[in-house]
Amino acid sequence: MRWDIFCNVIDNHGDMGVCWRLAAELAARGRQVRLWVDDPSALAFMAPQGCPGVEVVRWTTDAPPPAEPGEVVVEAFGCDPHEAFVAALAERTRREGRQPAWINLEYLSAEDWVERCHGLPSPVMSGPGRGLTKRFFYPGFTPRTGGLIREQSLAARQAAFDRGAWLQAQGLPAEGERRISLFCYEPPVAALLLQLAQGEPTRLLVTAGRARAATEAALRELDAARPGWNDAGLLRLHFLPLMTQPAYDELLWACDLNFVRGEDSLVRALWAGQPFVWHIYPQHDQAHEDKLHAFLGAIGAPASLRAFHASWNGLREGLAPLDLAPWAACARQARERLLQQQDLVTQLLQFAAAPQAQAL
């Protein structure tokens, strides 16, 4: 069975990250996958070796994809395949008398309406696909949603992880400091650095890209406004290169607290089972605020974790203090609860094979 996955990159770590993990896991389970992406450049660091069974095809909205549609078509996050591809999809349907499964894979959310919308049909009323039907597939945190991406190999990889060897390979001490990873947009980094410099010995491992730029800006701000703010040397910074997806997983497993952003790294932080703070993608209409509160409710976040998320995401003034012990308990409980649910790829395979997925 061939799967066509369409990805329109907005955040190359998030959109590309989710679609690549999905494509690679489908291939690991014996499916052939074409990943159509308008900007595949992030794969140069995420997956430089590629993946057997996954063909990456560059596409644009003004150039028709030159291929016969597969048995399953997934448009990720509401991106629209080229009209010529949709026309080919309709032609295949007429020829075979059966529509390939056409799935709209939506963004991750814990809001109540996700359960109601998961699996609903979306009839195509105009254009070359008129008469066909898409179906909505919503990832989520409850058994009545599509679940979360979790590779079949993840548990074995995590069990085999040697934290001491990992730290040695990074040139970091195994003892004597807590480790915090930072992957974010532009939150109040200066306030975080100041708080960390006044606590216990801490190594902040800063990811490449926007997190590093935000951190460097915060360092300049603090050096100008508060000279000597880190004279005690309690905070040490370690800037990381761009990382493959497996290497990023290992970073999360090695740290005592993880700051994550967007969708893909949030799910990886959940599977890591370590305390984490989520920097949600900000939206101009403030829709992210409801989404954040729904997520914190879904994992049973304690009051201190809710307060820190509010300040980290710009929903309140000042930066709340770190409180890792209850955050760790919350992370472990959320992980165990989510591990009892079917993963996203298993559910997606079942969903695509169901008769209603090919309804005309």
Written overview of the protein:
This protein is α/β, with parallel strands linked by helices. The chain is built from 14 helices and twelve strands. The protein has a seven-stranded mixed sheet with strand order 3-2-1-4-5-7-6, with helices on one face. It has a five-stranded parallel sheet with strand order 10-9-8-11-12, sandwiched between helices. Helix 8 links the parallel strand 9 and strand 10. Helix 7 crosses helix 8. The longest helix has 16 residues. The protein is elongated. 38% of the residues are buried. The mean pLDDT is 94.
Keywords summarizing the entry:
5-stranded parallel beta sheet, 360 residues, elongated, alpha/beta, 14 helices
